[in-house]
Write a structure and sequence with these properties.
Blueprint (H helix, E strand, L loop, with lengths): L26 E6 L2 E6 L12 E5 L1 E3 L3 E9 L10 E15 L2 E7 L9 E4 L12 E8 L4 E6 L3 H11 L6 H4 L8 H4 L7 E4 L11 H9 L3 E8 L21 E5 L1 H12 L4 E4 L1 H9 L10 E5 L14 E5 L6 H10 L1 H13 L10 E5 L5
Parallel strand pairs: 1-17, 3-12, 3-14, 4-11, 14-16
Antiparallel strand pairs: 1-2, 5-6, 5-8, 6-7, 7-10, 8-9, 9-10, 12-13, 13-15, 16-17
Length: about 375
């Protein structure tokens, strides 16, 4: 399909810069094949049945945006080494490749070369951390993606990243305001348990302990999977044809206990309700052609577009996504492109708030009502 098929006009004032308070007071657009309904998040239990299963992503967002300087020896005159050349850079961590290695998106990326030394925490307010978080560019790929080999490793590296880094707010928020201390809690779900994401599983931001209690009181079981969301989720689709787009991989895990429980839900006639596209993508990656969910541990780069045969997920709760994004392609595959275009047009006209801190939608497949 053409990427342009997934385009729509979104006014700038529809982009939410802060979440609703309380979280479950955000609006909820319920989208069925035969119509839609305007509700709020705390009404979610009204659309669930005893025996259904709610699946959420328990990843925790780390402060993955790092500022620093690139250092490179100046060859000087006549081959004599001169002063070290430094340029301010920014890295957004993407995927942990080893205890001391991260793939990251660098800005400015064009001038970065393999062998460059990067000293993070060496600019601005973090100058006191100079030398604490140094890395070498081990490799350079496409789209500004580089491989950083840090001087620290394991928990020691994690501790310094927490000290030096800032929360990686999406570009459409970061362009309008700076990250602050409030984002450290706002941009984290109540499910957050396992460090590793550089972007929040944003549908989960709507949940509160009271809402979870209300859901469980209806006879709905809750289950956790882990998908560490990478910075690739923010990259635009540059290809004209969706078939030419390359997804960046992300690490995820579905335990045997969770897989067995979800298979039992389906066998008993219950529905699997995913909180967010991250949970959906992971479950679909873990599901075979026979519809059985299997334990999963590793990377997935699944790219879901219209025509994809969903095997595991019956209902999807998700936020409103960017035009021409892989996530709008996914929801169009789930609920139908024309259905989603009409739903988004309604949401825009009716003042719904979009993106990470925005309102939510509940999407029902035609065979899952």
């Amino acid at each position: 399909m053409k990427t342009a098929d997934f385009d729509f006009d979104l006014p700038e004032d529809r982009i939410a810069l802060r979440p609703a308070e309380p979280r479950d007071s955000a609006r909820l657009l319920v989208v069925r094949p035969d119509g839609r309904e305007d509700r709020i998040i705390r009404d979610l239990p009204d659309f669930l049945r005893p025996g259904d299963a709610l699946v959420f992503n328990d990843t925790r967002v780390i402060p993955a945006r790092l500022s620093g300087v690139r250092e490179r020896p100046n060859p000087g005159v006549g081959g004599q080494e001169g002063e070290t050349l430094t340029v301010e850079v920014e890295a957004t961590l993407h995927h942990r490749d080893a205890p001391d290695v991260w793939s990251a998106f660098m800005k400015p990326g064009k001038r970065i070369k393999a062998g460059d030394r990067i000293r993070f925490g060496a600019v601005g307010d973090a100058a006191c951390d100079l030398g604490r978080l140094d890395a070498t560019v081990a490799d350079k790929g496409e789209d500004g993606l580089v491989v950083l080999k840090f001087d620290l490793s394991g928990p020691a590296l994690d501790d310094v990243i927490r000290d030096v880094g800032v929360m990686p707010l999406p570009p459409y928020i970061a362009a309008k305001r700076a990250e602050d201390d409030r984002d450290r809690s706002d941009y984290q779900t109540v499910f957050a348990e396992h460090d590793g994401s550089v972007a929040a599983p944003t549908a989960g931001l709507h949940f509160t302990p009271a809402l979870l209690e209300a859901i469980r009181a209806t006879g709905v079981s809750t289950h956790a999977v882990t998908l560490h969301v990478g910075a690739g989720t923010f990259l635009p689709v540059k290809a004209d044809d969706t078939a030419d787009h390359k997804m960046h991989s992300e690490w995820g895990e579905v335990s045997k206990e969770t897989a067995d429980a979800l298979n039992a839900v389906h066998a008993a006639g219950g529905r699997i309700v995913c909180v967010g596209t991250t949970s959906l993508r992971l479950l679909e990656s873990a599901t075979g052609e026979d519809g059985a969910i299997k334990p999963f541990h590793g990377d997935t780069a699944i790219f879901i577009t219209p025509g994809y045969p969903f095997r595991a997920v019956d209902i999807l709760m998700t936020n409103f996504h960017l035009p021409k994004s892989t996530l709008f392609m996914l929801v169009s595959a789930f609920a139908g492109l024309e259905t989603m275009k009409a739903a988004y047009a309604h949401a825009i006209a009716d003042g719904y708030r979009f993106y990470s801190y925005g309102d939510g939608s509940l999407l029902l497949r035609s065979d899952a009502q």
